[in-house]
Design brief:
The chain is of the alpha+beta class. The protein contains 17 helices and 16 strands. An eight-stranded mixed sheet has the order 1-5-6-11-10-9-7-8. A five-stranded mixed sheet has the order 13-12-14-15-16, with helices on both faces. Helix 2 crosses helix 6 and helix 7 runs parallel beside helix 11. The mean pLDDT is 96. The structure holds histidyl-adenosine monophosphate. The site of histidyl-adenosine monophosphate has 24 residues, from strand 6, strand 10, strand 11 and helix 13.
Length: 430
């Protein structure tokens, strides 16, 4: 038997319904705030992520799945294909593709701001565990074209409203500012000087990060590293005036919106494009994978991908984690809806009569289903009850002869004999 790939999942029935329900809530909510849907391809040129997310990030260095067509694989084996140059990658995140689409389709020419949302699948070669998958979904949002820190507050406000709708109450909004290229340059030097004295006590990853992406040393989960870096210089004490004003205003907007947040110096984000605002929403409902959403501002990204010098801000929420948290918060109601009308018959002639009735019901916009398994009346009744049909219509020899239908209400266990016209009236206002 061929089994699914490690870190991927199948969803059936109720599990798929939950996904659909959460998706609809997200879409309706963001549409009500004038966000427009954007869809991008499942795979992109690898260079988009190398340049967009950053060569030094864990995602690009270790976690991307790249693809090659079977024909090109043959060429590659024959030495006639430049794999590096033609490389394509299953998207590991949504911001770089959406920015690529924004530039390529000249969306920047539209009236600003441009507010978009997306729901998509992403792929990262991470070690699978509860809440962490190799194929996962994200609900994402981006605002292009405005530097106003209210954008940063607005997306958090709507995101918290989304979590509230899903009855998820236990969450923390953690915010930070990681400055811009101006303030980061001098800050990075300061941090490097501080950390280089403690190098020997830091893990190998941190030693590596010191030269690649020094900010990431701050969010190392290793308890020894955490202890070693205690007292490190904080970036919010080293912001330039512009970044400082941005952060102060951002916080004042969150205050006015009554959003309960905490400044957390360790929120530095793992993708290289962030500037100024960085935030995460975490919850204790999820165990080790506590980040339910992460995002921030990326004012230099569009320009660095050869677009205009437009600012951007957004977030990605882990759909799978949102669904788990909603489940644990008791959002999903197990009560199954009573659905349609089920038709059972005794033999072929009665079956044909059922089809005439079903056709008439269709013309009156009444949905009904015919037994597909040739069940006896007894087992059809049992089946319809178990599957939560509201009514069962029985057409046997007598009904065929008298041109009637026996209608049984499975809720009240009452039964009546009706003509087709009476049935239409009865079911039409059910
Ligand atoms: P990210 O922090 O890498 O940011 O991912 C956002 C969220 O996706 C995480 O907080 C987590 O809930 C979920 N997630 C990430 N990896 C996995 C995984 N392997 N399995 C399950 N869930 C996962 C980004 O991707 C940015 N593009 C977000 C953004 C949009 N920033 C600005 N705009």
């Amino acid at each position: 038997m061929i089994t699914k790939i490690k870190g991927t999942r199948d969803f059936f029935d109720k599990e798929a319904d939950k996904i659909r329900e959460v998706e609809e809530i997200f879409i309706n909510l963001f549409k009500s705030y004038s966000y427009k849907e954007i869809k991008t391809p499942t795979f992109e040129k690898t260079s988009l992520f190398q340049r967009g997310v950053g060569d030094g990030s864990d995602i690009v260095r270790k976690e991307m799945f790249s693809v090659i067509s079977s024909a090109n694989l043959i060429k590659y084996k024959e030495g006639n294909y430049d794999l590096e140059k033609n490389s394509m990658t299953l998207k590991p995140e949504g911001t770089a593709p959406v920015v690529r689409a924004f530039i390529e389709n000249k969306l920047y020419a539209l009236v600003k701001p441009i507010k978009v949302f997306y729901i998509d699948k992403y792929f990262r070669n991470e070690r699978p565990q509860a809440g962490r998958y190799r194929e996962f979904s994200q609900l994402g949002v981006e605002i292009f074209g405005s530097e106003d820190p209210y954008c940063d507050a607005e997306i958090i406000m709507i995101l918290t409203k989304f979590l509230d709708t899903l009855k998820i109450k236990e969450y923390n909004v953690l915010i930070n500012s990681i400055g811009c290229s101006k303030c980061r340059e001098s800050y990075n030097k300061k941090l490097y000087d501080f950390l280089s004295q403690k190098k020997d006590n830091l893990c190998n990853d941190c030693n590596d990060r010191m030269n690649r992406n020094i900010l990431r040393v701050i969010d190392c989960k290793n308890s020894n590293c955490k202890k070693t870096i205690e007292g490190y210089p904080k970036i919010i004490d080293n912001l330039c005036e512009d970044c400082n004003i941005h952060f102060t205003r951002f916080k004042s907007y969150l205050d006015k919106l009554n959003i309960d947040y905490k400044v957390d110096h360790s929120i530095v984000r793992g993708l290289d494009y962030y500037t100024k605002t960085a935030f995460e929403i975490t919850t204790d409902l999820l165990g080790a994978q506590s980040a339910i959403a992460g995002g921030g501002r990326y004012d230099g990204l569009i320009k660095s991908l050869d677009g205009p010098d437009e600012p951007g801000v957004g977030f990605g929420a882990g759909f799978d984690r949102v669904v788990i948290a909603a489940e644990k918060s008791g959002f999903f109601n197990d009560e199954k809806q009573r659905n349609n009308i089920f038709f059972a018959y005794s033999s072929e002639n009665e079956k044909l009569r059922c089809l005439e009735i079903i056709n008439k019901l269709n013309q009156n916009n009444i949905v009904s289903e015919l037994d597909l398994m040739n069940r006896s009346f007894k087992s059809a009744l049992k089946y319809a009850d178990k599957e939560n049909y509201k009514y069962i219509c029985l057409v046997g020899e007598n009904e065929l002869k008298n041109e009637t239908i026996t209608l049984r209400n499975l809720d009240s266990s009452t039964q009546s004999s009706l003509t087709l016209d009476e049935l239409i009236v009865k079911l039409g206002d059910k």
